[in-house]
Amino acid sequence: MYHFNKILALAFIVLLTGCSIGGEKKIKIFSVEEPRKKLDYPMPTPLQIEEIKWIIITSENANEVFKKLEEAGIDPVLFGITDKDFQVLARNFAQIRQKLQETNNLLEEYKKYYEDTDNSK
Amino acid sequence: MAIAVMLITGIAGAGMYVMKLRADNATLKANQLKLETAVEEQNKVLEQQKKDFTAIMESNKKLNVLIGTFKKDLDDLDKRFTKKNRDIGKLAIERTESIERIVNKGGSNAARCIELASGAEHTEEELKATLKSEINPECPALANPSYVPFQ
Fold first, then answer.
1. How many H-runs (helices) and E-runs (strands) does chain A carry?
2. Which of A17, A27, A112 sits opposite B19 (nearest CB)?
3. Domain that includes residue B135, residue range
4. pLDDT exceeds cutoff 70 at A121
């Protein structure tokens, strides 16, 4: 009976501690990040501007200009602006061009910032 | 018999205590690992933030330079119309043909500036231009990157 108790006690101890024999399992923590898909739009296609011809018409050359237009088979009609409005038009076009350049530059900078570095997450 | 039971109980208690210690140890190790990972991630974040800050500063600087050139281009355009009390209207009456030629050339240059601003490739001629006579005066900074204006 005494031996039986000893065996029982030993078995009990082994039962309790058995799982920890050989040390605890190592815990590994890792995370896998799936990178965000790139938008990848192509840059806008550059514009191809068609040229227009400016005709300067004064009170002196008006008849000559209309005559030349008729000879060339063009309707003898002109859409005119004054010299002051011509300056305004030039300035407006310059501003539109600058805005276009600024927007394109911003787009490039955004693209560079979010796609060249690790900021795309 | 009583001693044996006490002994067994003692051993069992000790075993359980060791087991608890091992479990605690495992928890502490896991926590330590988590902390180390967190510190490492924080360091990475800090490093990335530094890089981002530098990139943002550079980008800002570039855009400010660009906006500076815009103002200069507009001022230059105004100067061309008003330099030395110039009146483009009167000039057009006096020298109609030459002003017409200048206006058409200017229009053509301005159109090219719009193409370039929209992302068109520079021609070799534009890239090589260094003299005032070779540049596109409507947008020299955009059209002719090699041109350095004389101050």
1. 3, 0
2. A17
3. 56-151
4. no
Residue A25's Cβ-side half-sphere holds a number of Cα atoms within 13 Å equal to 4
* pTM for this model (two decimals): 0.69
Look at residues A80, A78, A65, A84 and name the one whose alpha carbon lies nearest to residue B89: A84
Report the candidate in B107, B149, B148, B145 with the shortest Cα–Cα distance to residue B124. Answer: B145
d(CA A17, CA B14): 10
Instruction: For residue B53, give how far its alpha carbon lies from the nearest alpha carbon of chain A (Å).
Output: 11
- Cβ contacts below 8 Å, chain A against chain B, sum to 150
What are the tokens at A68? Answer: 């030349």
Nearest CA in chain A to B44: A118
Q: Is B84 part of any domain?
A: yes
Number of folded domains that form chain B? 1
Picking from A12, A24, A58, the nearest residue to B12 by CB comes out as: A12
Chain B contact for A55, CB < 8 A? Answer: yes
Looking at the domain assignment, is residue B21 inside a domain? Answer: no
Mean pLDDT of A47-65: 93
- pLDDT at B150 (0 to 100): 66
Question: Does residue B19 lie within any of the structural domains?
Answer: no
Residue B29: band (very low, low, confident or very high) from pLDDT cuts 50, 70, 90: very high
Q: Does A4 touch chain B (CB under 8 A)?
A: no
Q: Which residue of A lies nearest to B119 if distances are taken between CA atoms?
A: A46
pLDDT tens digit string along A36-46?
A: 787 778 888 99
- The answer, yes or no, to whether ipTM is higher than 0.85 is no
